[in-house]
Queue: 4 jobs
Job 1
Amino acid sequence: MPSQPIAELSRPIWPYIQIARPDHWFKNVFMLLGVLLAFFYEPSSFAWGSVPSLMLALVATCLIASSNYVINELLDAPYDRLHPVKKSRPAASGLVQTNVALIEWFLLGVVGMWVAFLINSYFAATTLVFWVSGIAYNVRPIRTKELPYLDVLSESLNNPIRLFLGWFALIPNQLPPLSLTLGYWMVGAFFMATKRFAEYRKIGDKNQAAAYRKSFSYYDENRLLVSMFYYATAFALLMGIFIVRYHIELILLVPVAAGFVAYYLRIGLQPDSPVQNPEKLCRDPKFLAYMLMSSALFVILIFTHIPVMYDLFNIEPTSVNPLWTLGNG
């Protein structure tokens, strides 16, 4: 039997790889905050012995995320056909068989849960929440993606879920700070609402937008802008609570973080904004540089102790030992 080119052999499989969206796995970087918090609260977890758990955690999270992407693309296919760009997705283009995609969704979820149970029960429970949230977001009769505001809040819930996944991979018997968890949710909601705003403007026709996404029958540009302002304000207030309560050194990050939110908003207000596709946005060298700089500053500050700041703001320092101390303690 003559050998066929690899491309020819992989052609029937490729659409099923596409709907699992491995190119979106970069979003699991949001687990990193949970990992950093775990290192902050339990410095002993910063060791080579933690690497296997972290690797398994990443594998489990990627598999569950792909399972959610599969069901998302499969059930969104009729609506994606009404979108100027998403109509070319594999499921919308008719390149995917429903029964095969459902098997793929199930297997990715089951294997992801199996890997999660290898870590610990807390991580596995959070992984199950991650999987169920994907079902609630996509599957009727709930299908939260069709409900105004709840569509944004339910999808951005993946942010605190990923924070918990990073945390529980290392610390299975405690919860991370609630203020930071809620703040992480709100900044995710801001990003998601900005994406909705950009999508709404891209489509340019309310009836077509509503046919593509049911929540757009309620939204307009003003409502989306107001929601973006609300989420950004809630994020700022919650982060302020976390900074004052746990680590005042992070107040030095505030101008940079505020600049990042403003920069993201500026990009989101552009015509045909790239925030509609975050994987493309991360290819913008200026945005990527700002994001990496902000992240690096956060990492440095959270592991640094500056005693004079506690005197200046009249706040008792945390009992957690930092990696570095600047000035006299």
Note: Residues 177-329 form one domain.
Job 2
Amino acid sequence: MARPLRISFPGAFYHVTSRGNERKAVFKSRRDREQFLTYLETATERYDALIHTYCLMDNHYHLLLETPAGNLPQIMQHINGAYTTYFNVKRARSGHLFQGRYKAILVGKDAYAKELSRYVHLNPVRTGIVDIPEAYEWSSYNLYTGEKKAPLWLCRDFILAYFGASISAAQRGYKDFVQGLIHYEYDSPLAEVTGSLLLGSEDFISAIKTKFLQGRQPSNDLPPLRQLAPSVTVGTVFDEVDKEFGGDTALARDLKIHLCHKHSGEKLRSIGSRFGISDSAVSHASKRAKRRIETNEELRQKIQIIEKKLSSPRNEP
């Protein structure tokens, strides 16, 4: 299995997820969840982690965390390692608890962090566990809205600052912000992740690539580097799709959108402007094409040929 690429630096902001091995439950009791929260607290004390939001599901968890000391690996080794030891001792078991290494997406500390906080807090609603986020006990949502007293180790100030100057106004504003999407289907902010690693503005992504990735060579061991390398052009995607699917305008359009979204490195807004559609429409078209590819063997084989051409040396810088 390819190891995930890690970028660490002081002040880095991440969306972190970790799933149970074989998707099995990692939290089986109230005590388990309470114990996990103590490891979040000790991570702030021992490793200077800033925990912005959390949500503990049955077989995985979500965190938004910041690393003033640039030490994400040490923080995560502490959280996952300590909890695995606790879980194994309690149940007289041994071996891995979590599936592989945690997934960490480096996030621009701006409006993307605000959107991700809503995504994290709505996770129990999206999965149908509860109808409203305040009904779920094991997330930081009620600590943001003031329904429960927040522990000192939870860092709420950065995200709440978007919603008001006073704490009461910010809490009301944040509650409205989250609840405004409860009854609507919406696109995950993670749909805009670049190279399975970066989420942020074009300036943020460009700066990270320049500072941390320039000069590093893609390999089978670090596949995100290939995705983050200068991408194929939109024109190349259009040409290849038209050669194969030019006679089916509707299908060709969805395939162009999907392949541009996957390979060009352009933002949803930029892709949408080429077709005269919204960000949301781009995401839906890409998902629609992906489903067709996955369920149609002939189409899948043709797309594999196109993708092989797109990744060939003549399309690389």
Note: The domain at 12-191 is CATH 3.30.70.1290 (Alpha-Beta Plaits).
Job 3
Amino acid sequence: MNPDWTAFLAVLGPEIVLGQVVIRRAGGGFELRHAADRAASADSLPLLPPRDLRSLAQWSAAGAFRPLKSAPNLRRGWRALAPDQPALELCVNHLYPGAVADWFAARAEAPPVTSYRQFTARQSGMYRISTLLDDNIAGAAIRACCHPDFCLKRRLWTVQGLAPDSPAQKSIIPCLEPCAIMLEFARKAARWQQEEENAGPAPAADPGAAETDFDAPGNPRRVRFVLEKQRGADIVRE
């Protein structure tokens, strides 16, 4: 057994919550279900084979594609059984790819965390612009893009002036470096700064906007970015 799974099973106890999923010991195996269905009777939840969890994780209840598997919009109303550790590993990696490996890595004395500046410094081409955000605006972009409304991973990386997420803010799944969605959001934020598109009040968020359609004025992350910038400006004025 891999050391990451050995350590994870050692702390699992009777049950553990990983993102939005409750993992429980069930006889010699495990049961998985949505945390919102924690108290539901087993008979009331359709039983899914482990292989079906991959497609479950692809789409939200509203039918929207989930580009970020750690987004807090996993569908509820199901349960799955894993008869042993290899089956549990398959289930978890369908729902939260790499989560246990990252969890284990974050427990090291020196976790392999890559800061925003380290991450963007190695970008090239159209993403090189992400290095131009000053610390205040980069912090606003990070707070917006990685907000608990959009991602349940506990951000361990940071930029000057912005603290990592506290354990209580997110979940036990760590985030060791900026993801592709954060990189694209930072690129857009740099463009908005150049064009001064976000000088006015924040528009109303459009919950129907595609998660990564940052060109849509009502994109929830984009709206939150405007609010975070305004909040930062208010703090400076004070």
Note: The helical segments are 3-12, 53-56, 85-95, 99-106, 116-121, 135-145, 180-195, 220-237.
Job 4
Amino acid sequence: MKQRLSNQRTGGLTFVEMLVSIAVVALFAVMAISIFAKHRPRAARINCVSSLKQIGLAFRMWSGDQGGEFPWAVSITNGGTLEFVGRPEVFRHYLAVSNELISPKVLTCQQDKQRTTASTWDQLTNDSRHISYFLGLTADKTRPQMILSGDRNLTTNGRLASGLVRVTSNTVLGVAPLLHKNSINIGLVDGSAQQLPAAMLQRLNGAQISNQSVVLAIP
């Protein structure tokens, strides 16, 4: 009776098999990195919109204890920032709602490479270090669709806006490719937030402003 030959292996992987395994692992690693890089801007956008919703909620909570007024309509003696409205210091308005906002980390966009995240409110002493979002100082709770906050990559008449900016129905609003390419994240008084392309931002501006002007404090 003939003895059958066994094809079973008694050792580990051969050198060739090991090379193939390494190549497969490397291929999956490259694919994973590619997928992560592709979705990273989307993740940053979602995080940004979430931050603007938190900012909107904080200001609404604060106004609920102040007869419906936002900090820029309330005197310093009552915890507001009315006396600072004429100054281009956005951080003061955010400090007013520090109890409602809990952490200053939400004030920095992940895509904003010119800003660093503040870990404590004591670090918030100016606008150019930790703040990525502007505030609409003419926003009030009686107009829920007014712009309350948004990315600082806003342009007016073709120039990157900063400081106190008065926007009228004749102002041409645009978006600088500073944070989210050709889009901008906007938070409204009603607490909602969304990303808009430049064209829609201009239409939103015209619908809101009509015959009056809007003052934005942009870091």
Note: Residues 44-218 form one domain.
